[in-house]
Please model this.
Amino acid sequence: MGFDWVFFTELIVGGLMSGVMYSLVAIGFVLIYKSSGIFNFAQGTMLLFAALTFVKLTEGGVNFWVALPVSMGTMVVFGILVERFMMRPLANQSLLSLFMATVGLAILIEGLAQYMWDSAIHGLQLADFLDLALLDPVNMTIFVVDYIEWLDILISKFDIFATIVAGTMILILAVFFQKTRTGMSLRAVSDDHLAAMAVGIPLSRVWALVWAVTGIIALIAGLLWAERVSVSFTLVEAVLKALPVILIGGLTSIPGAIVGGLIIGVGEKLGEIYLGDLIGVQGIETWFSYFIALVFLLFRPSGLFGLKTIERV
Amino acid sequence: MIYRETGTFITSYLEDRKLFPIPFDKWAMAVFMLFMVFVVPFIASDYWLAAHLIPILAYGTAALGLNLLTGMTGQLSLGTAGFMCFGAFFTFNIMLRSPEWMNLPLAMMLAGSVTGVIGIIFGLPSIRIKGFYLLVSTLAAQYFALWFFRSYPYFLNYATATVTLPDHHFDFYGIGDVFGVDMASFEAKYLMSLGVVSALALFAKNLMRSATGRNFMAVRDMDIAASVIGIPVIRTKMLAFFVSCFYCGVGGALFCYAYLQVLGIRTFEMNRSFEILFMAIIGGLGSIAGSFYGTVLVYEFPILFSWAGDYLFGGAFDTAVVDNVAKITYGILIIALLIREPGGLAALWATAKQKLRTWPFPH
Model:
């Protein structure tokens, strides 16, 4: 039996695409971890909350171009509230307490989202709102059912769209971090809280900003994920999927989040097909990504691009 | 005024090492245990035993196990439910496939030990991986457990989703028939759970005041410093994983055998891990009694909340709304507790005790 190269390439491409989706969630994680050292478990429920807000608005007949900024605004307000009522009182506590607080926050948001809206499963067709013709000027639709053929490989156009969105977002973030004054203060805070405060950077404002930006990223990631898996509780589990991604890349690195996403995306697909065949049991993808992450971490304990921690006694 | 050390003078090192240095503590504990053993089974209804006391004991064991690992040794774990799953399934299989002479407590201990060994395997990465990065290993354990038992139906005796645990597994060499007690009744299950849990809690308490326990805490506080002063860090971490997973395994077995009475994979989903993590954190990381305080609070909170909702509003809201409000309140409660008292309920209790000791002249 010859090796099916087309199938293999298709797997790789598919893996890369789903890797992008993981990266989208991972970026939100990394932003918060970088700036405050907090492992934000609530990222998944933020995704759910943001996407649910958006969907309910549009279902209520609000125009897409109104609903988008309104849900963005909601996430910004939400970020500021989190900073004011959770981060500020919890400053200087152990990382474990902070982590647990975000798990508490996750439960809070979960209840809030379902209380404000509802817990039904909502489908989301971005195609209904967006007439993005940039990928396919002929058919004018770009979504899941559609594939383009390239070298005998079928690629979902939606995945390409997601990749473009993710790429743009990363570009914007990179410029924001490197070129703007606010970005600089963000980097300063992530390097050293105390030193940043000493030179007069308002820590609380920076944190509020980070949470707000993360909220917006959660909205974008939530919408893209929702398109794939519908708006429901599955979104929360997207976070657990993203966990090995950030850990491979290193908790402090945005490029790491992307590379990690691609590694996991591809590895998962290959593992499921080839390793699954080998041992004759299906469904290994539930734990296989964690396994990949473990292997990487064994060689590089703080991820591929993560900040090396120097431990002193 | 009763809670005093006045008059208790420690005259030897042996006395200094007593488990309950304050006599009041000792007597209170003794009365409490006697009450739990000799009074509760007779006055509590089946509902109280089956829906409150037994699950609290089962959850408490798992929370204690997690606390030994996370609170005492500082290794964060999200795989608790996975380890419980191993424990429960192995107990069932040992009971199912071993000869007559096997009994449930022994099977639980055996299954717990096997779970402990599995825990060591998943704990191995902790030698190199630290902090949040270790989450990935315990998460792997969680999902691996679910996948494993789903993929190999042999362990569920080829049942489709769940197995009802047979009553004869509770039989203890016919001792029930001698005394005319039904060993599968809730009273008997409660007493068995209580016995197992008390033994494990006592063991944990003693472990923590031994050299091993001090090693655990040294590794938690800073493992490099610990290795510098000559503590075998790797061995300590592995031992912590073994003990912790042993407790989680036994907790899982109790959970299925004494509480649910059915065995299924869905019992041990990810959410259960979080629930138990909350119990450990709210109760107070690094406190053995705290694991049980936290268990009581986390387990009873939703029940109390829906009861209060029913009582106050008489079902004016549907259950989904009450559920969501409960979640919101619960989330706020956790954050507030972490802000006010990061040490959890155990720390609150310690403060209260200190107040009692010095009352009415605090200075």
Summary: The CA atoms of residues 62 and 251 of chain B lie 5 Å apart. The domain at 22-358 of chain B is CATH 1.10.3470 (ABC transporter involved in vitamin B12 uptake, BtuC). The longest strand of chain B covers residues 162-164. Chain B touches chain A through 48 residues (CB under 8 Å).
